[in-house]
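Sample entry (322 residues):
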Amino acid sequence: MINRRQTLKLAAVGASTLYMARSASVSASEEIKLRIGWQKFGILALAKSRGVLEARLKDRNVSIEWSEFNSGPPLLEALGANAIDFGPTGDVPPLFAQAAGGNLLYVGTYKPPAAFHGLIFKKNSPVQKIEDLKGRKVAYKRGSSAHNFAFKALAKVGLTPADIESVDLPPPDAAAAFKNGSVDAWAIWDPFFAVAQSDPDTRLLVTSEGIVDAWGYFLGNGDFVAAHPELVVEILEELAKLGQVAQADIDGTAKALSDITGVKEAITKVTLTRAGSDLSAVTTVSDAAVAYQQTLADDFYSYKVLPRQLTVSDIVWRPKQS
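Predicted structure, serialized as tokens:
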């Protein structure tokens, strides 16, 4: 949960940058287009539904354009190519984007629940424990946070990525493959995880709790962040503020997110009440988040998944203090 010190720091930075922005040379008549990529979960989806960013920035002549993505890798591809300006993702997608030379920066973080991911199998499958996955097909989206979770879950029982047949599928295709038995197991995140878990034919091998201490990230296009750093701070501040409201009314938040995603309200509530869930845990990038991400980058390079070693801090942005 975002602590009082972090909240006050973010608010202070927001206030100072807002003042600078209002006194800047940008003409009041010049419209700024803010292009946001979003996925159907979490605080940013809620922000889109409730129009809080539009309300916050209405006097700033900022227009917002929203583009939906079903996972982090294509979202960050668009971000790095200057097709969008801001968006959320799990821990692994930024590593691939940085390795590809995308023009992007880490600008903020959020903390998903401890059990945000699940590794699932079918009720009547011969797979009954993680060790049984050796030589079998496991679906996950390559370059997603589920990629990291799948590898760490295997490592927990002494298996390596080479011990399974990896099947690279985005969530909608993976859901279909899992349902028809084309794959033996599926590593996936919420709300897809909660939806699949609600099926009586689905069984759970393990969640990410105790396996992955994951961070989620907000990233910005490098050119946009350089031109409008004050907007980045205001976005993060508004998301944290909305998160506090949403966290105080889980039933109302479950209904709102259910309306957005089409996922049943009861299942949505499961995702919001998993251990460690806190929609208000939005802040700028901390040293702990950078250290976690650097370790992950080193791990994925050692797996020979990343083509080169990365220095994560090279693309970390922090607001300047006045």
